[in-house]
Amino acid sequence: MSDRPSSSVVALHPTPLEVLAIPTALDGHAGTNRASDGHAQIAAANDLDAIRAWLARLADRRTTFGNYRKEAERLLLWSLVELGKPLSSLTHEDCLRYQAFLADPQPAVTWVANAGTGGGRKHPRGDARWRPFYGPLSPASIRQTTVILNVLFSWLVQAGYLAGNPLALSRQRTRKAAPRITRYLEPGLWQEVKDHIASMPQETHRDRAHYHRVRWLFTLLYLGGLRIAEAGGNTMGQFFVRRDTDGTMRWWLTVHGKGDRDRLVPATRELMTELTRYRQSFGMTALPSPNEATPLVLPIGSTSESSRDKAAKPSHRPLTRAALHTIVKDVFAGAAGRLRARGEAFAGRADLLEQASAHWLRHTAGSHMADQQVDLRLVRDNLGHASLGTTSLYLHVDDDRRHHETDEKHRIDW
Where does it reside (predicted)? Predict the structure, then answer.
């Protein structure tokens, strides 16, 4: 017997939550897993309202909100479109089927953006080409999805909206394989990416602006080890200089990142040189002023070749995470194309580059620092894998050593 919606149910298509219209029969007001004790702690009358109540707690944490909304949205749409049942009627068996679906979202034309054309490109949520997925999820991504959905279901149970958590039966701990970073670029492949960036056209004003932006973005992601959301969500005013214990002036970047935490990233001499180069390409001062609101990465079009005033005052509108992601993917695709042009022997390396994303640069930064024998504790702090120390003298000295080793051993060498 098929689990797809019967013809008597109104046909639904994957649509973003903010414009999703759910027929009353599927809205969850009478879901089979709804709590029946009458002591709900939220006013939600249906599944969509319940999800919105869950997300409302995260409105001030943009990255977390986006990730949580994505996972709740995907599950809700799959439940409606593929099973023809409300989210509040999902069973444990349904959740297992959903995990299998994540590994291969079919039919792709319904679920995957740019299906049949390589996928991967993100579209705005209001675009008719928007789809919930950009391809199959890796096992690690499926685990992360399950963690987030477990948080959703647990909260809805605690809020008195659901009677039980259908994922609870899957939470037995399993033996984990030894961790191994595989999504990074070995030095030769990283050099191919840098060579491609160096070859980008610079004939027109827009070409030059794009070249400088790409070079700066890849410098920031690699030397700074930033996440793509951190590159889009922080400002140039977060660079600052301080004198270390031997009197040397060193630049740092305060990054507000994952988990709503701040960390200090060593702004090496190379990084500051590239920042100066990038700012001057916009007609700005070489170094940012304290608390300057200029985004770390600027949109093209915020300056004009014929307007010196506009060049001196670039737009403070930051690029979206999707826009930054597209820039990075386009560069990897261009580098892959150059490899393919050399012949079939380079096809495997080109395939690997086409799979790469901005987060690969973060893994690449960590791997290359470790290869250069930067102390792993310093790598951890550079990438924000542990909370920052406070202002004690001992930790301040340790910060100075971290800056020195990062500056000496972690280089981009344009």
Answer: Cytoplasm
